[in-house]
Amino acid sequence: MTDSPLATATAQILKAEREPGLKPVVKTFFDETTFTASHVVHDPSTKTAVIIDSVLDYEAASGRTKHTSAEQIVAYVKAEGLSVAWQLETHAHADHLSAAPWLQEQLGGKLGIGADIVRVQEVFGKIFNAGTPFARDGSQFDHLFRDGDQFKVGALDAIALHVPGHTPADMAFIIGDAAFIGDTLFMPDYGTARADFPGGDARMLFRSIRRLLSLPDQTRLFLCHDYKAPGRDTFAWETTVGAERAGNIHVYDGAQEDEFVQMRTTRDAKLSLPNLIMPSVQINMRGGHMPEPEENGVSYIKIPINKL
Ligand SMILES: [Fe+2]
């Protein structure tokens, strides 16, 4: 295998299969307003935890934020006696605001995202005319992950894989036998994420997905969103590589790249933008921080007219 990050990830997953103590405990908090699954992942032996893709509640009409969703995470972490090592973002989300800075204040942990966030900052910094106070070097984050970066969550092995396509900076974080894959794949009956945001690329997405699907069949996959497929009444956010290979409606084994690109592009052209894209992108490109307050001490969200 020439893809060495993939080989390392595969070995890590197989090791966790042999030694069940190396499998993380995963608790998911699902936000039905933005259909986002936030995961708290921990090593049972050391109680070291990682929080992935947290949600800051935001009411568009009033411009008010609330911490109701994030408070549930704080309560769980405290009740379980966990110590938080990382706050991770699989990518700069366009449909919800990140609660990572607030959770960092409550619980600690280093804030990490993919290194290509700088490309996202470049593109959206221009679109929102963010000016010089907005650094486009990823410095809002404590750590920028590159493909193949290995790290530890307590006694558990972890590795980051770069899986661009939905955005240029998407990462999958694999902890023990569990892969947190953001918006690459959705549940098998729902398919895949859109690839039409600035810097997105359907062909790249297909290749990233096929790379993830070459991990062992039993790899647990945890998704960032679910929208309930037609005919399904409950939200779901966990599946396996084997289940996706067998049954994902877009990228099952045997699916053809050109056909996928055609399908994804046609479908994306009909999708409207997420309700919260304006506040989400402006805040998430800043690592979850509000834009610099104006001289009256208030932060504002911009809306570019006829631009997106
Ligand atoms: Fe997303």
Automatic annotation (TrEMBL):
Record-annotated Metallo-beta-lactamase domain positions: 35-225
Transmembrane intervals: none
Record-linked SUPFAM superfamilies: Metallo-hydrolase/oxidoreductase
GO terms classed as biological process: glutathione metabolic process; hydrogen sulfide metabolic process
Keywords carried by this UniProt record: Metal-binding
Keyword Metal-binding appears in the UniProt entry: yes
Top-rank lineage group of the source organism: Bacteria
Pfam families, A to Z: Lactamase_B
Gene3D superfamilies linked to this entry: Ribonuclease Z/Hydroxyacylglutathione hydrolase-like
Gene Ontology MF term list: metal ion binding; sulfur dioxygenase activity
This protein's name: Metallo-beta-lactamase
Organism expressing this protein natively: Acetobacter cibinongensis
